[in-house]
Amino acid sequence: MTNLELENLGFVPAGPVPEHEVTGGFCCDLLSWAMSRCTEGRVWFTVMGNINTVAVASLADAAAVVLCQEAAWMPDALERAAQQGVALFTTDLPAYEAALVLARKLGQL
């Protein structure tokens, strides 16, 4: 599946969605942990909506970042994501539940 299909799972795009292949999910709110463990093609579920999250997602080549629990993206993060081709989404679900939605779609459960 691609990250373009994330909207069909109930995740709301927060800006442009450049197409990336989705291989799995990753839940974490610690940037240094995500930097070393979020791998290419993963959808990163977090509540950190700042510019540093976008930077880490770009470095990791994440398929997308889903901001959970109704957290809001900072304006500078939205701008940087558009510049760097990082797909951003939002959801009101907690990270665990949002990751389960993706895992079910990917047949990983």
From TrEMBL:
SUPFAM superfamilies listed in its UniProt record: HprK N-terminal domain-like
Top-level taxon = Bacteria
What protein is this chain from? DRTGG domain-containing protein
